[in-house]
Design brief:
about 40% helix, mainly alpha, globular, Cytochrome Bc1 Complex, Chain D, domain 2, about 5% strand
């Protein structure tokens, strides 16, 4: 009986824990070096805050709290545009999951096994993914809570 209760308590704890723990933004700044080949973090004035002004991927300034697939003047893949069009807004926790496996994330969020991501790079280490997500969240004026609506166009997070 004791063994069953212990096993049940452990299982409950594991299932209740989030898939990715909150990250360390400072550590994420270092890991972001892996991302800067394709991405930049540049504010509205064009000042580069992180990265090397790469243009292969979208600018990640204000990504947390922004609707997926909506950064202006970037040609996103169909799946991520569909996710954003459905009202999905990036959260720090979901961004960490996306960074670990972008295509898998889109398939699960859209419920579509054929969903694809143009981003082929994966941060397979959960801690690294969480740290980069925390780092990127530090460049968002008002991170959205799970299920919260995206900011209106033209607000500071875009």
């Amino acid at each position: 009986m004791k063994t069953r209760l212990t096993a049940l308590a452990v299982l409950s704890t594991v299932l209740a824990a989030p898939a990715f723990a909150a990250g360390d933004a400072e550590a994420g700044a270092k890991v972001f070096n892996k991302c800067q080949t394709c991405h930049v973090v540049a504010n509205e004035a064009g000042e580069v805050l992180a990265g090397k002004n790469a243009k292969t991927g979208p600018n990640l300034y204000g990504v947390v709290g922004r609707a997926a697939g909506t950064y202006p003047e970037f040609k996103y893949g169909e799946s991520i545009v569909a996710l954003g069009a459905g009202g999905y807004t990036w959260t720090e926790a979901d961004l960490a999951v996306y960074l670990a496996d972008p295509a898998k994330f889109l398939k699960e969020k859209l419920g579509d096994d054929k969903a694809k991501s143009k981003m082929v790079f994966k941060l397979k280490d959960e801690a690294e993914a969480a740290n980069v997500a925390a780092f990127l969240a530090s460049f968002s004026a008002a991170p959205a809570a799970e299920g919260e609506a995206a900011p209106a166009e033209g607000e500071a997070t875009n």
